[in-house]
Amino acid sequence: MNIEVIIPLIIFLAIIFFIGYWSSKKLESSTGGFLQEYFLGGRELGGFVLAMTMVATYGSASSFLGGPGTAYTMGFGWVLLAMTQVVTGYFVLLILGKKFAILARKYNAITLIDFLKVRYNSTVVVLLAAASMIIFLFSAMTAQWVGGGRLIESLTGMKYTTALFIFAVSVLVYVVIGGFRAVAVTDAVQGGVMVVGTLILLIAVIIAGGGVPNIMQDLLAENPNLVTPYGNEGNLSAAYVSSFWILVGVGVVGLPQMAVRAMSYKNTRSMHRALVIGTIVTGFIMLNMHLIGVFARPILPGIKVADTVIPLVALKVLPAWLAGIVLAAPLAAIMSTVDSLLILVSSSIVKDVYINYLNPNASEKKVKNLSFGMTTLLGTVVFLLALNPPDLLIFLNLFAFGGLEEAFIWPVVLGLYWSYGNKYGAIASMLTGIITYIALHFYNQANGNLFGVHTVVVPVILSLIAYVICSLVIKKTKYIF
Amino acid sequence: MELDLRFKIAHREALIGLGLAIVHFLWWFGFAYGLGSRPVEEYTYILGFPDWFFYSCIVGFILVSVTVIILAKYILKDVSFEEEEDGQ
């Protein structure tokens, strides 16, 4: 494999390591308490870092490899679908926004579950939430690590095991020593790499294709369906594409890794800046990465494996050293997603389970060692699982993001804005959401999508109904914020 | 009283977010399927892109970005997170 491609990747990793080291120095000198610093970066994220960490955490392997690969196959219909993600840029911050930040500080909440614990005052809610978070995020994390390993494998020609090892050690080192601040600041750098990589590759692909009108002619000549909103075989229905507004747009409010960011910012000015930067950067990356996928089609026809479209087209249209810089973008996307999940699962085990129930009086030193130890242990377990992923994990990963949204969206949103929401509603909504989601998944696999929409839609509605009915019927009480 | 005011602002801004998402959805959906459902031969092209895609995804994205900038600059209000802690 080409050494010129590898050098930019090594420089990228070196910068990431340096940030981990810098954050660990901050951690030592912090005064706000270890937990708050390690798991929330001391609640002092500024607007730029906040925006980038949201974009980078959310933009995963699928935004840079899988998504553009599907756009390559399906055409403009899939770019239209991908653009539903622009809404997350402003929606999460505006909806959770100020109320969540104010309450999180008031409750002294460090994790999403801390918030739910105070709001609902219920052990069942906490344990249910912690269990779904640990199970779903763990599966999602493993899948992303496999993606990271495969990407390094394909770029460097190393064996998968070696590639995965390099990837795992890189992520673990900076997350374990630096905590949330390292995660957020590396996310900002990784977000920057993602933006620059996208821009370079877009320009190169348009030039290689002879300009947009020319590419469009090629697409029309090959299959006119590629330029319609209905997909290459005309099988993307309006209802199906629109239902992605729930899965990757507004439903993202329910993802714990997004919610925890909405309690980490310094002040409302940071939040307003993040709103603007987040929306523009998300839209820019989603629009252009998926366009690159479509535009790659006339340049490099006949690619069979969707995930390889972006690496292959980058190597084809760019000089090797520049391809190395651009291909740091998907690597950045994967790293910035797994690092957030890692710190989140670790915080959930340490804070939500251990400190809440096992040892509420643990000393600062003990908590510190446990946090480092747990993060390392989790990372090692994920590494071992990613070496040869068991079927169960691959299976659970299918449910990861949808399942989390089903579990958390109503307990979080209605918990914030509806005084009559209570623990019975929250428990009913979580159980209804997860169970009907998994059940409907099998139904849809066997019979085609119910009502022609994505699996996530119907359970969201059912869990809303469950939340409202149970809150009103069982011990109706008004919650004073 | 301080508390009520801050929550009032927060509630208003959450509604703004919801409203923006609904308008955004209608714009996105309207142009994509309003223009995109015609036979392909009738498409016109703007800057090389099919018209439905240009209005729905490119113009839509630019309009949303401008709206968010205006919101952040003129509509959303700064509130303090700190006073609450002092009050406790």
UniProtKB/TrEMBL annotation, chain A:
It comes from the Bacteria. Its main location: membrane. GO terms for biological process: sodium ion export across plasma membrane. Pfam families: SSF. It is found in: Membrane. Signal peptide: none annotated. The chain crosses the membrane at residues 6-24, 45-64, 76-97, 118-140, 160-180, 192-216, 236-255, 275-300, 320-346, 367-387, 393-417, 424-444, 450-474. The keyword Transmembrane applies. InterPro entries: Na/Glc_symporter_sf, Na/pantothenate_symporter, Na/solute_symporter, Na/solute_symporter_CS, Sodium:Solute_Symporter. Gene3D superfamilies: Sodium/glucose cotransporter (1.20.1730.10). The keyword Membrane applies. It is a multi-pass membrane protein. One of its GO terms (molecular function) is sodium ion transmembrane transporter activity. Keywords: Cell membrane, Membrane, Transmembrane, Transmembrane helix, Transport. GO terms for cellular component: plasma membrane. PANTHER family: SODIUM/PROLINE SYMPORTER-RELATED (PTHR48086), SODIUM_PANTOTHENATE SYMPORTER (PTHR48086:SF4). Belongs to the sodium:solute symporter (SSF) (TC 2.A.21) family. This is Sodium/panthothenate symporter. It comes from Psychrobacillus glaciei.
UniProtKB/TrEMBL annotation, chain B:
InterPro entries: DUF997. Keywords: Membrane, Transmembrane, Transmembrane helix. The chain crosses the membrane at residues 14-33, 53-76. It comes from the Bacteria. This is DUF997 family protein. It comes from Psychrobacillus glaciei.
